[in-house]
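Dear colleague,

Thank you for sharing your sequence with our group. We've completed the structure prediction you requested, and as agreed, I am returning the results in plain text so they can be pasted directly into your records. Please verify that the sequence below matches your submission; if there's any discrepancy, let me know and we will rerun it promptly.
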Amino acid sequence: MSLTLGIRRPRKHRAVDEVGRLREENHRLLTQLFGARDHIAIQDQQLADVRAKRAEAEQVVVCLDADLRDRTTERDQARDEIRQLHAQLAPYLAADANANAVTVPPAERDTTAFEDQATAPIDVRELQARFTAGPVVSLHHSPQAADPTHIPAPAA
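Please find the predicted structure tokens below.
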């Protein structure tokens, strides 16, 4: 009689277990292989799309460049024609301006009314002499601050 009491212990190195583990590994690797193949097919399709779009964009650029050159040539020709026509039209414009010139005799202002009297310049020398005597003093906290018409005494 054995001491295991009918409990069978699994063997550590059974060939069946190793075959099962290898089959699982093979299945995992095949799954990765097919997934990679699908991914590569998607990437190839995307690469073909990008190449087609690039070729189309290059064609558009070539057409736009040719169109730009044509428009630049047309613009230069139109600019030359405008300059030529302006040179031909200049004498007519000058004659028209001379014929329709606005000529006004020099006028004098009527200053007989009191409100139209000319004013003389204001003499500010006295104010300059008062305020250039020293530094500006803030009147914010002084008793004169209450009187807005207060002017400091002239500097002696």
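Summary note from our side: The CA atoms of residues 133 and 155 lie 6 Å apart.

Kind regards,
the structure core
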